[in-house]
Amino acid sequence: MAVTVRIPTVLRKLTKSQAEVEVSGSDISALIDDLEAKYPGIKERICNDEGKIRRFVNIFINDEDIRFRGNETAKLEDGDVVSIVPAVAGG
Predict the structure, then answer these.
(1) Is the pTM of this model over 0.85?
(2) What tens digit of pLDDT does each residue of 39-91 get?
(3) CATH class assigned to 3-86
(4) Pure H helices in the chain
(5) Pairing mode, if any, of strands 20-23 and 3-6?
(6) CA–CA separation, 27 vs 56, rounded Å?
(7) How far is CA 39 from CA 14, 17, 22, in A?
(8) What is the predicted pLDDT for the residue at 41?
């Protein structure tokens, strides 16, 4: 199942400057594992040591926040678009 992942600028050095990549996975957890297999080092930027998505990383499936769909267990369908959006802070 093909899913398009939109990569934020801060992580593009891990994807050879690609703004979008195609990966597979039945849920967000599997998608992150496939991202890691294809682009080593990306998982540690997205997930903490327990494998949970970091607080400052927001992930959306077709513009819907995964927090309302089960976080890492949010199901994916062929053709979905997943956006990884790091939180921005500052003053």
Answers:
(1) yes
(2) 999 999 999 999 999 999 999 999 999 999 999 999 999 999 999 999 876 65
(3) alpha beta
(4) 28-38, 42-46
(5) antiparallel
(6) 20
(7) 6, 11, 11
(8) 97
